[in-house]
Amino acid sequence: MRLEITHETRYTYSAPVRESVMELWLQPLTLPMQRLVGFDIVTEPRAKMMTYRDWLGNIVYHFDVPAKHTELIIRSRAMVETYERTDPLPKKVDPGAWAHLRSDEVRSRYYDMMRPSTFVDGSGHLETFMRERDLLVLPPDPLTGLRVLNQEIYGAFDYVPGFTAADSPIDAALEHRKGVCQDFAHIMLAVARHWGVPSRYVSGYLARTDGDTQIRSVPDASHAWVECYLPEQGWVGFDPTNDMLANERHVVVAYGRDYADVPPTRGVLKGDADSLLEVDVHVRQAERLSLDSDFLKVVRSPRTRPDQFMAATKPQRSVALEMQHQMEQQQQ
Length: 332
Hints:
Blueprint: E1 2-17, E2 19-24, E3 34-44, E4 50-53, E5 59-65, E6 69-82, H1 97-101, H2 104-109, H3 124-132, H4 142-156, E7 158-159, H5 170-176, E8 178-179, H6 181-195, E9 199-206, E10 223-230, E11 234-239, E12 244-245, E13 250-256, E14 265-270, E15 275-285, E16 314-316
Parallel strand pairs: 7-8
Antiparallel strand pairs: 1-6, 1-15, 2-5, 2-14, 3-6, 4-5, 9-10, 9-13, 10-11, 11-12, 15-16
């Protein structure tokens, strides 16, 4: 698929703030099943954009607006070409895969993706959910278990934008059985890691097509899902929000242990003001790949092997003078 993605983030402040410092995880990666053709990003007020590659291999943009402003707008545009998986995923894998996942090689290589993280940890609510859904017992094989888990989360939780926030723990969704893609991804990560399956959070976008009936995630926000490592299969994507396997409609922007590693935007400001965050995302199929020069200002990321790991509008809380303020947007 040829996809064009536009992502606008707008912060409006009730009073002038003196400085904003931001980090952005917005540029899609180049992967075996995904090719980044072009990427461009601009801000208002204008700022000098710099980049680096984080410890997980993602491309991060960062900038500073050192002058007074009452509004900050970040606009990004990407052109991506995605491909269908050529080798179909089997219905199950050999039960002996459990022994491989318990091996020292796997545990040391994927250590960070097998342990608790900021938003992924055990709790009483998680144990209750797993008991109710017969998920405490190890499945016959990892792939069968992950397919069932994907389906169980889809069936057990209502999709309700705005019920949780970007910094909500998984207990908020587990207790009330409602949330958005960010919550469902964290819950799937918690169960998969409990089983001993290396699992990582994926931040990106989902393209919708005419006639979609299964897709329940909103079209005007970024998306999140999960990838799990399976012997002989590599990293396999699961989308519990929509009860589907990740496919050519899923565009990968960044990998992390959870949302805390790869929020689309994160920053701090100096000032005493209330802020309002608005996000507008559009993902559409493109007839041709754009090649204009302004659209090729892109930081190229290395091609990555499959087994290699390298919104809605909401009010923000008031911030005190000289205090840092997180400016994150929830993935839905």
